[in-house]
Design a protein that fits this description.
- The structure is a single chain.
- By secondary structure, the protein is an alpha+beta fold.
- Helix content is 40%, strand content 11%.
- The protein is built from three helices and four strands.
- Helix 1 packs across helix 3.
- The protein is extended.
Length: 106
Amino acid sequence: MERIVCNPEILGGKPVIKGTRIAVYLILDLISEGYSFEEIIKLYPHLTTEDIKACIRYTSKTEDQAWLKAELGELPPYDWGSEGPPKGKPVRYESGIGLIITGDKQ
């Protein structure tokens, strides 16, 4: 992620494209509004296709990490007992309920 940086001196520490004051969220907003990479580069000629792709990759990774942290932070301690978790049975986590064994063996 060397193309994306966070600096408290720039936009209050929001992630930006390195060497610019262009926030990652701005590029993502443009993409969500239907702008193509080419149109974004016309608006910001000093950007490259790789800069735009880096914004997407950055958000994808940080969103995955945020989701994982939120999910794991909510997991209640669970005691599987001496046998450990059930073998071959799908387990899912449901917020507010905990781990649920669903269905039979896969």
